[in-house]
Amino acid sequence: MTITAPETTQERFSARLKESTKHVHDNAEHSTFMEDLMGGSLNTEAYLRLINQYVHIYEALEAVSEHYRAEPSPITEPFTHPGLDRAEYIRADIRALGQEGDIDAPLPATAEYVERIRATINSPERYLAHHYLRYLGDLSGGQAVAALVTRHYGIPAEALSMYRFTELPKPKVFKDGYRELLSQPHRSKKREYPRELHAAHPGQWKPHPGSPERSTQHPPHQYVRRGTGERCTYP
To answer: Is the CB of residue 169 less than 8 Å from the CB of residue 3?
Structure first.
């Protein structure tokens, strides 16, 4: 499937959604952990612990995507492109960073988030909210994350495959087309979608991936800033 963007000058439903969730998005970007990670105050281990939690999130989302591929809904049908699936790539990135064996267990906030995603298997409008937030986030801000963790921690390209969408059109073309499809009346008039969008926004998910150094000297909800040794608490 190729998503194409028709020309329009009208304000789109997705633009209103973006504006309505701006404060939550800003809170997520300015959480202490994400500021430290993207500002270079942490280390590769911190990023590794974070993407271990992502495995649980994306595997849950992609299990629901597979359900909607098998049983298409008019709401979801244009969006379930298998080229968006990220779990396989995240696992590859984890191996590329030297972690062998099992993925970290889901932390309580992650487990709660995963259950919310799984519950959308019978609610295509709610599923689409999670789909929009995760994948368009990866195609947008995720690209900045990849650049910053490379700059600060020397994470190589082979460990950042989750941010490369080789089976899709150019990101801007794809994202514009995606947003146009969201704006179609049979989707934009669904009340469940904006409600779930606010509740499911990544700014509401508070990851607690533990100390980047995996030190037993600190509780699992704390991490240590690189260079200063300052102990900080995850948001």
So the answer is: yes
* Count of H-run helices and E-run strands, the chain: 12, 2
What is the pLDDT at residue 217?
33
Q: How far apart are CA 139 and CA 179, in angstroms?
A: 13
3-state DSSP assignment of residue 54: helix
Phi then psi dihedrals of residue 6, to 5 deg: -70, 150
79 closest CA partner among 68, 67, 90, 71: 68
DSSP annotation of 149:
H
pLDDT > 70 fraction of the chain, expressed in percent and rounded:
69
Task: Give 225's Cβ-side CA count (13 Å radius).
Answer: 15
Neighbours of 64 (CB within 10 A): 23
Give alpha helix (H) positions in 30-170. 32-39, 44-70, 87-96, 108-118, 124-131, 137-139, 141-153
Using pLDDT thresholds of 50, 70 and 90, give the confidence band for residue 180: confident
Q: What sign does the dihedral 78-175-116-83 (CA atoms) show? A: positive
Query: CA quadruple 88, 120, 206, 31: dihedral positive or negative?
Result: positive
CA Rg value for the chain? 18
User: Which residues lie closer than 8 Å to 138 by C-beta, 6 or more apart?
Assistant: 86, 162, 163, 165
Identity of the residue numbered 199: A
Q: Is the pTM of this model over 0.85?
A: no
The model's pLDDT over 188-223, given as tens digits with 9 standing for 90+, comes to: 666 776 677 767 665 556 655 554 433 333 333 444
pLDDT for the residue 183 = 81
Q: Tokens at residue 144, please?
A: 């900045």
Q: How far is Cα 5 from Cα 8, in angstroms, rounded to an integer?
A: 9
